[in-house]
Automatic annotation (TrEMBL):
Pathway of action: Cofactor biosynthesis; FAD biosynthesis; FAD from FMN: step 1/1; Cofactor biosynthesis; FMN biosynthesis; FMN from riboflavin (ATP route): step 1/1
Enzyme class label: transferase
Keyword check for Protease: no
Keywords per UniProt: ATP-binding, FAD, Flavoprotein, FMN, Kinase, Multifunctional enzyme, Nucleotide-binding, Nucleotidyltransferase, Transferase
NCBIfam families (UniProt xref): PRK05627.1-5, ribF
Coiled-coil stretches noted in the UniProt entry, renumbered to this chain: none
Protein name per its UniProtKB record: Riboflavin biosynthesis protein
Gene Ontology MF term list: FMN adenylyltransferase activity; riboflavin kinase activity
Origin species: Eubacterium album
Length: 303
């Protein structure tokens, strides 16, 4: 997959393009990407995506996202996308008129001869560009247009906004169904306080990106992918209140049946089920007892 920025001086030709935020790369987005493959007919498949949520840029604030930019890129690669083009989100870009956006970006830069989108796709200044606009102008600009129906979950359109609420409320199974893949955290294993190993539970610690949306603090049944191999695991998301105060939020995973050094390795922790909330115990002995019970419960689970 080619990785580029919309500000690069590259000119592509004969491509099929889809545009959006694609936060989470959910089941609806996956349907869109598989349509890209179906209609490609030899064209290169391009995803043009924003590096941040447009509404955050306008409000001058950051909203946490289901996937980081890096995770989104990896998911697009898995879906067989040929070119990943990220759009640095600026007020100038958001103010582009629909005509300029199509001419300057979709046609001149990306060489689009086909566009795939959902029925509510909008772009350009205050969302002035929409599916009607794209339909009316197919001949003027010279592209084929494919509009796909929205993918639903229990009769409601799947959307990144809905999935973000589901994560915030800790509904992991529902989140995973709407995503069509497990919610996960990908990151480099950092050194912790090394207390875990002294209580016989060595943990792989990830310090998630500040923009990564995490489920509520607590213990989750997870699976961890290490160098292409998937292991049963259990993960604490939180601040370790038993150990000390003011700790940063960490994603801490005990990987069953793994004995090795993970420092510096990039691992993927996939979440399946909430087990219990994070608690402050009176002492480390109590915490140790609870973690032993958690691991026993985890091992009995089918996942
Ligand atoms: C399954 C599991 C459950 C945990 N639950 C809690 C908890 O409820 N409260 C808490 O303070 N820490 C909890 N922890 C975090 C431990 O405090 C942490 O693993 C230990 O301090 C080791 O940290 P270190 O890797 O920085 O050495 C949990 C860890 C695991 C693996
Ligand atoms: N459920 C869905 N089924 C099919 N296509 C979808 C679905 N949701 C979004 N799309 C399409 O995917 C493209 C990118 O959508 P985008 O990520 O910007 O919106 P979204 O998933 O609805 O998120 P948000 O909740 O932030 O609006 C658009 O063409 C959009 O119409």
């Amino acid at each position: 997959m080619i990785n580029m920025s919309a500000t690069d001086k590259i000119k592509l030709s004969n491509t099929i393009v889809t545009v959006g935020k694609f936060d989470g790369l959910h089941k609806g987005h996956e349907k869109l990407l598989s349509e890209l493959t179906k209609k490609a007919n030899g064209r290169r498949k391009v995803v043009l995506t924003f590096a941040a949520e447009p509404k955050d840029v306008l409000n001058n604030q950051t909203v946490k996202t289901i996937v980081t930019d890096e995770e989104k890129r990896l998911l697009c690669e898995k879906q067989g996308i040929d070119v990943y083009c990220s759009m640095p989100m600026t007020k100038e870009f958001l103010a582009l008129e629909p005509d300029e956006f199509i001419n300057e970006f979709l046609k001149k830069k990306l060489g689009a001869t086909a566009i795939v989108c959902g029925p509510d796709f909008s772009f350009g200044n205050k969302g002035a560009g929409n599916v009607d606009y794209l339909k009316k102008n197919t001949e003027k600009y010279g592209y084929e247009l494919y509009v796909i129906e929205k993918e639903k979950y229990h009769d409601k359109d799947i959307s990144s906004t809905g999935i973000r609420s589901s994560i915030i409320e800790g509904r992991i199974e529902e989140t995973n169904e709407m995503l069509d893949h497990p919610y996960s955290v990908i990151g480099k294993v950092e050194e912790g306080k090394k207390i875990g190993r002294t209580i016989n539970f060595p943990t792989a610690n990830i310090l998630p990106a500040a923009t990564k949306l995490l489920p509520p603090n607590g213990v989750y049944a997870t699976r961890t992918n290490i160098n292409g191999k998937s292991y049963r695991s259990i993960t604490n998301v939180g601040i370790n209140p038993t150990i000390s105060e003011n700790n940063p939020t960490k994603v801490e995973t005990y990987v069953a049946n793994f004995h090795g050094n993970l420092y510096g390795e990039v691992i993927e922790v996939s979440f399946y089920e909430f087990m219990r909330g994070e608690r402050k115990f009176d002492d480390i002995e109590q915490l140790k007892k609870q973690i032993t019970m958690d691991i026993n419960d985890r091992i009995k689970m089918k996942i």
